[in-house]
């Protein structure tokens, strides 16, 4: 690549030059690029004035060079083709092309001898193989730059979505882009609008107002005005925006995007349960199957006692019409009362009933016999499970006492174990010594090869057994105390956490308590894990103690003091189930 010198000046002055100025309006490509005026100024100073060039044509374009088909660029190449232009002056080679087709076309014009030079402030590309290669490289790099850049933008957006924010663009009413303390743009609630929208939603949720009445109050009484932008805004909230707000799942924390579903980080207008109730009020939601995330009792392998099919969770909504008092099921395509026809969203304080069920997804039995096991209401299931947990419940004071005894026994156990371990290790060393001696004897030809082999094999076998025992001793050491402690902790706190914990915690409690879950005749059956079977019997034995300690008071202490107790869960995970008894819990147990 040549630099500007006197010889080149001669050639340039005898040529037909044009300057090509381009800056993309798409800020993604040319955000930091010099403006068209700036490019023009630079070229004037560094090339045109400096070399005293006359009659330089100007071609200006405000279009991306990502894609083929720029009108001015096409006109320029046509002029070159026609012999009216033979030198092109540009601020940088990447002004000419950021795609392979246009870049190739340009270099071809050079090969054809129609384009003598491409001049930039940094150097000149002439019709030589090496210069053309350089130029092509510049175009290729410009292409890659743009690929990289758009990839980076996409990546940036994905990262932002993953952490729970909407990357860019216009946000819904109630949200705004703000900078956080690390100078990163995030979404936050719009302090002027978010509280008002939330208050209006509350009116709908409380069923004191229909959605349209709530919107009227929002606009007329509270003077809501949409966010102002250059062209729009400053108006009351429209009906469509209001309904969009009420049915957008991002407001309870689920951002649905082309890229996937993300958990939001910006403030929520309502909870998921509230959101679902509103969908019923709007006449949208109907029965749906609840997935693992929604409910604690799916994904645990619970089966139907009649046909062994998976038990799933299901919900039903029922509405009592406010006008005619008809009770009807909210089916998928039913938005209004089946008897008087009034739309659900227009009912004044309709009664909304929500039921959840554990529903076997029945399969047919042999010879087409249907399975007649019924669904079990979740409320009922919870009672049964609570009764099971209360059977193994032990008060905190007893738990502490039991653990203390366990620890004392553990000290004894530890001493025993250490002794056993020492003995086994000594035995291991002894065998090793015998093996070594045996080899010695063989080398000194004290024994025959055959005898050596036979004896060695026996010793190796013995050694193997000793080492296996050693391993087991270690394992026993880790397990039993921890397991017992966890068992007692579980027995003590599971009931509390079952009543107050999250779905995930409930799921853990259920799977800790037992395996092979089954629903039969509307009852929960399970194989209780062995430690709890023992506790079941134990409760009667410690009944006397319970009386001494006045259990009611103890239960009270627990429920008032939940934070003092770290969460039970992940109990007994390391232990295999021991399914030798499927227990059934009498519902009447209290
Ligand atoms: Zn069934
Ligand atoms: Zn009705």
From TrEMBL:
SMART domains in UniProt: Resolvase (SM00857)
Domain (Resolvase/invertase-type recombinase catalytic) ranges: 17-166
Residue stretches of biased makeup (Basic and acidic residues): 24-39
Residue ranges with Polar residues bias: 580-590
SUPFAM superfamilies for this protein: Resolvase-like (SSF53041)
Domain of life of the organism encoding this protein: Bacteria
UniProt region (Disordered), positions on chain: 19-39, 569-590
GO molecular function, one term: DNA binding
Entry-linked InterPro entries: DNA_bind_recomb_sf, Resolv_N, Resolvase-like_N_sf, SSR_resolvase
Entry similarity comment: Belongs to the site-specific recombinase resolvase family.
Descriptive protein name: Resolvase domain-containing protein
Lineage of the species this protein comes from: Bacteria, Candidatus Daviesiibacteriota
């Amino acid at each position: 690549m040549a630099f500007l010198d006197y010889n080149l000046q001669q050639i340039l002055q005898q040529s037909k030059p044009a300057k090509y100025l381009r800056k993309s309006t798409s800020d993604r490509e040319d955000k930091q690029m010099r403006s068209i005026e700036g490019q023009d100024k630079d070229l004037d100073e560094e090339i045109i004035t400096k070399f005293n060039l006359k009659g330089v044509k100007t071609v200006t374009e405000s279009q991306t060079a990502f894609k083929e088909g720029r009108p001015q660029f096409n006109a320029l190449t046509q002029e070159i083709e026609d012999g009216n232009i033979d030198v092109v002056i540009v601020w940088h080679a990447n002004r000419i092309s950021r795609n392979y087709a246009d870049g190739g076309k340009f270099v071809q014009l050079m090969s054809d001898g129609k384009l003598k030079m491409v001049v930039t402030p940094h150097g000149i590309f002439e019709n030589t193989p090496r210069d053309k290669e350089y130029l092509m490289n510049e175009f290729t790099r410009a292409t890659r730059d743009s690929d990289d850049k758009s990839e980076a933008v996409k990546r940036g957006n994905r990262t932002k979505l993953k952490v729970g924010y909407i990357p860019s663009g216009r946000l819904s009413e109630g949200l705004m882009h703000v900078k956080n303390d690390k100078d990163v743009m995030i979404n936050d609630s719009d302090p002027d609008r978010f509280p008002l929208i939330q208050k209006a939603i509350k009116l709908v949720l409380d069923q004191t107002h229909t959605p349209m009445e709530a919107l009227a109050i929002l606009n007329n009484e509270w003077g809501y005005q949409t966010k102002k932008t250059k062209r729009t805004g400053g108006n009351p909230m429209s009906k469509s925006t209001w309904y969009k707000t009420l049915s957008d799942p991002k407001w309870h924390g689920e951002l649905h995007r082309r890229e996937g579903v993300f958990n939001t980080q910006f403030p929520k207008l309502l909870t998921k349960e509230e959101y679902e109730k509103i969908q019923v009020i709007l006449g949208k939601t109907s029965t749906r199957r609840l997935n693992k995330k929604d409910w604690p009792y799916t994904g645990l392998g619970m089966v139907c006692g009649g046909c062994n099919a998976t038990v799933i969770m299901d919900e039903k909504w029922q509405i009592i019409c406010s006008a005619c008092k008809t009770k009807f099921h909210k089916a998928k395509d039913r938005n209004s009362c089946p008897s008087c026809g009034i739309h659900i969203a227009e009912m004044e304080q309709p009664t909304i009933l929500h039921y959840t069920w554990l529903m076997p997804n029945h399969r047919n039995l042999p010879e087409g016999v249907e399975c007649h096991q019924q669904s079990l209401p979740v409320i009922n299931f919870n009672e049964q499970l609570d009764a099971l947990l209360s059977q193994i419940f032990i008060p905190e004071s007893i738990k502490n006492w039991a653990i203390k005894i366990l620890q004392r026994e553990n000290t004894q156990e530890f001493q025993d174990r250490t002794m056993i371990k020492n003995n086994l290790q000594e035995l291991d060393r002894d065998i090793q010594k015998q093996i070594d001696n045996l080899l010695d004897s063989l080398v000194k030809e004290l024994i025959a090869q055959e005898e050596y082999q036979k004896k060695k094999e026996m010793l190796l076998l013995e050694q193997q057994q000793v080492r296996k025992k050693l391993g087991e001793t270690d394992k026993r050491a880790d397990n039993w105390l921890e397991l017992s402690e966890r068992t007692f902790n579980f027995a003590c706190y599971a009931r509390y956490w079952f009543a107050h914990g999250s779905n995930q915690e409930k799921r853990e409690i259920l799977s800790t308590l037992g395996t092979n879950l089954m629903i039969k005749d509307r009852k929960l059956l399970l194989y209780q894990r062995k430690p709890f079977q023992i506790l079941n019997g134990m409760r009667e034995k410690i009944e006397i103690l319970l009386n001494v300690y006045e259990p009611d008071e103890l239960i009270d202490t627990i429920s008032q003091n939940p934070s003092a107790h770290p969460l039970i869960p992940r109990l007994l995970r390391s232990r295999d189930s021991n399914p030798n008894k499927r227990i059934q819990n009498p519902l009447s147990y209290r």
